[in-house]
Design goal:
By secondary structure, the chain is α/β, with parallel strands linked by helices. The protein has a single domain (7-234, 316-359), classed as TIM Barrel (Alpha-Beta Barrel). The chain is 39% helix and 17% strand. The protein has twelve helices and 15 strands. The strands form three sheets. Strands 1-4-5-6-9-10-11-15 form an eight-stranded parallel β-barrel, surrounded by six helices. Strand 2 (17-18) and strand 3 form a beta hairpin. The longest helix has 20 residues, at 128-147. The chain starts with 6 loop residues before the first strand and ends in a 16-residue tail after the last helix. It binds flavin mononucleotide. The site of flavin mononucleotide (FMN) has 20 residues, from strand 10 and helix 10.
Length: 371
Amino acid sequence: MAQGELTFGWFLPSSGDATGLGSANDRIPSSRAVFDEIVDAVDNGGFKYMLIPVNTTCWEATVLASYYVAKTRNVMPLIALRAGYMNPTFAARMFATLDQISNGRLCINLIAGLNDADAVADGVFDDKIVRYEKMDEEVEIMKRLWQSNEPIGFEGKHYRVNQVIEPKPFQKPHPPFFLGGGSPQAAEISAKHSTVHLFWGDKPTVIAEKVKEMRALAAKYGRENVINFGMRLQVICRDTEEEAWEEAHRLIKGAGKFNFVNMRTGASALEDIKKTSDANRRVWQLLDESGNDMKIHPHLWAGISTVRVGAGIAIVGDPRQVAATIQEFVDAGCTTFCLSGYPHAEAARIFSQKVMPFFQGRMAESLPAVA
Ligand SMILES: Cc1cc2nc3c(=O)[nH]c(=O)nc-3n(C[C@H](O)[C@H](O)[C@H](O)COP(=O)(O)O)c2cc1C
């Protein structure tokens, strides 16, 4: 019986997995078989939720989630929802349906999307400021639709909705919202709406400061004790520290620094993403400020950020060191950890067998309640 407040989640790489990041030959293309193995490791490995991302090359997140809630018993899909992409009444019905058929196993990760160019390529011409304004309205609309038996009469800057919908979600008052973003707008919307604010990797002292700032912001909405905090991190864990660092270096061997390109155009997306994503800018700042070893803390490594955008900070070490680094983030105020590693099924199994035991008796039965 779990008694604590900590939860662990894992990542479903729905645009494909990899055994390494240094060469195209290391890529494992997306397939049902690849995803099945990862989901099985996650569902049976003690993880409470599974983050399903969105971008142009990801298999569609809600469709994947519907398939996997039918095949699993434990894990909750955490579906990334890009602001401005979906009509909010349609989203409210779709998510309520999924929450019903899964007996309340849905959670939603609010994101603004990678950059403006990515949105424009999809035919969405809203800049980041507008995408965040829409996110705020979309969440408000969904929450109200899910709780009201009368037409909601919503009048916003971007949406006007006067509807009452069925089904209502299984979870009451509604499924939990996570939010991942690093800008002041992201912080404001998270303070107002989310159950969990997710950070990408940073130094534990910086996270402790951010948690304080976020709680102060949440206090404006009477939510300082309602909001929870989580880290989205990579994990490279081996039986010995030496093996873990060997694996870290093997993972990016052969990759040039910053050679990742826009999936569609082939052009380097780095400068554009740096301009428009605070969260990505911070990760690359950490990499720039690190030494030759790319360490930002004894067991936190920025090496993966040389080859990919987003969640590029990894915990590297033996099981005890990985657990101790997680504990530093717990001390900073985080209670949930959304993790990944390459290849994903194997890394999930290693984490659940070797690191989770350090947290025995401290893990929660479910995610924090929505309030
Ligand atoms: C924990 C976390 C998860 C994210 N997941 C996604 C994702 O699935 N797809 C995506 O396009 N962007 C994702 N993002 C990127 C955000 O959309 C990105 O931070 C965006 O640029 C928002 O801008 P901001 O950081 O300036 O607030 C994620 C960010 C964080 C922190």
